[in-house]
Prior knowledge:
Helices cover about 50% and strands about 15% of the residues. By secondary structure, the protein is α+β, with helices and mostly antiparallel strands. The model has no long low-confidence stretch (mean pLDDT about 85).
Amino acid sequence: MIRNHFKIAIRNLIRRKRHSIINIGGLAVGIAVCLLIFVIIQFDLSYDDYHQKKDKIYRVLTEYHHNEPEIFYGKGVPYALPEAIKTAIPQIEESAVVFMDRDTQIIVLDDDGHSLSKFKEPTGVFFTEPGLFSIFDFKWLAGTPDSLKDPNSVVLSKETAIKYFGGWQQAIGKNIKWNNEEVLNVSGILEEVPPNSELQFNVVIAYGTAFTADMKTSDNWDGTNGSFGCFVLLPDDATEAVVNAQLAALARENKSEEVRDSQVLQSLDKIHFDTETGNFNGKTTGHKLINALWIIAAFILLISCVNFINLSTAQAVDRYREIGVRKVLGSNSRQLRAQFLTETFLIVFLAVVLAIGIVMPSLSFFGNLMDMSLQPNQVLRQNVVLFLLLITVAVTLLAGYYPSMVLSRNKAIDVLKGKANTKGSEGITLRRSLVVFQFVIAQGLIFGTLIVVKQMDYFTSQSLGYNRTALVNVDIPTDSLSRGKIGYLQEALIALNGIKNVSFSSDTPTENRGLNNWSKFKFNHEPERTDFFSIAKGVDHAYLSTYDLSLVAGRSIKKADFGYEFLINETLMHALGFDDPDEILNKEIDYYDEVKGPIVGVVKDFNVRSFRDPLSPVFMFNNPNWYSQAGIKLTAKNMGGSLGAIEKLWDNTFPDYVFDYQYLDDKVANYYTQEKKLSQLYKIAAAIAIFLSCLGLYGLASFIVNQRTKEAGIRKVLGATIGNIVYLFSKEYVLLIAISFCIAAPVTAYFMGQWLQTYAYHIDITWVVYVLGGFSALVIAMLTVSYQAFRAARTNPVNSLRTE
């Protein structure tokens, strides 16, 4: 019986080639989207899942109460915390410091200590302790974690060792130089870290080496460093709540009275999804994005199933005689439903096979889009195969059950007499409802895409309060010898053609959350520090002119070898109780009893953080010890030539350092990685939704036009024009799309409005979005339907009526 069902199913697929292609193709695209999204989400959910003790691993976060009621979290902790918790909280089984070094310069040395090659590691360089490898399960090819007890000991990843020395076996015992300061001995090699790991090691240096020796003995509890973190391992009988209470007590005991920050635990499985706090590998995926992916997958699959249901029920009239004959020969409704479900299963099976063929070569593209390591073999994993089986069964039942009921419910005598219910209001209403449902989803995705794209355009085009055009940033060496060359370098750069200005500073005007230096200070000889935190920046005399920051009062910092001067922004001025900028000039700022000086200027507010966050109070002062980068303003002409000249000068000035630069525009754009992913996904999903909706509309219109060919012929004989007939066939779809617009527009407005509210700065949703999106959907749909209607209208009435 089953074999017979499959034979008949294959014959029917071959007999109705056009509709079979539409059904299989539509379902294949829908299933491919689901499969791709499932693989992406599974990769995200697998982060750090391979560690045996994963359920008991936590990182310590700092809960900041800088400007209450605003509370936010950071991955940085006080330098004194890691050592203190080892004795103060005995419930913690193991703890380990992790300090991430950025833009590290590495020189590979020969046996005589001479330079062989130089590299720049933007990320992947960490200072840590042996205990980290008791917490996490990282594989060693050579050496042991105990080697990290010795200062100036370094462990390399296999790939990094091959890059430095040509082979990882040759690396053991060799020396490298860190930032032209410390010579490190290679004492171990790590197997490659899986791509789904929070910690991505290239170079692992013993904690206590170089400047981290001061961190190790520090008693500083008030400040934090976003690159300085701590991981802990709890025993089975310890709970997160109990340890959090102990961390809070420890903070109250050691922090200054005015500092209300405290530390809390965050479980390992939450780190990858914490887009606000971030992590050490810079790759996070928010739950909102995960939910959006699931919703997109469900909607696309539903559109594919709706196509199938619409076409199957519309084709019912062509199969009623076949059904009548089968019933006369003894088939019952159950057997007929089994036959039609078998046909549906065959179509779904072929669609699944085609979907796999679509997804496997697409994984690398979507991996790059989502910044993930996606490989074709991930489609063949056990959980993915089970998902495909579930999809096959679910789609077969979802798409096939109702059409099988429609096709099998009429009595044989009615069918053979031509009295079968082929045009009942129930079937017509269902098909109309399904078309509306499809275009509600399609138009909703179009509206959402337009809003996300406009918000992204806002991010990139809206002024941040300064000019970031043609401005490049170059990290400068921080060793004492190199710092002595900064004055010469500034003068030499200014002398080059194509360079307008040069400034040295601790950071750019806008830095992403977590990379700003939040501090308190004493104002105007007050005995206590401010009751709020401000962002501190070290800048030179050319900072304002290089970044085109505007003064509202006073002057810029003067070029001087000693003494300190301060600039503040308008937000800080208001926070200090002043409305007139001239009144605050010459008031003193005392920054931690180390740096004192007058306020010499008030700067017009600029966005010191991304557009997610409101304006923050900022103070800037001249402190060469803080300078870590150069901001170089280029002229618009021959920027490539200017960069080449800068690199040549750089190599002559700092021969042991790799020259590397980044346009400020690109740096700011990178703050919105999650939004860029969401924008790309919406664009792709909207395109697929429109394609599938129009594919189904094309098949449905084609079938209906064929059913009404004689009607069109009669109308032409009676004088109807081609335009009249096209209007006749198209007007119903215009109404259905209008109804779907009326549903999609308010729903999208509500949910996208909620999304926009998560940003301190955002666009307003205007009627233009809905007019443009609705009109686009209408035009595409009408082009699809009108083609079939036009084809029917052009048919010669003699051909359509010759059998009447």
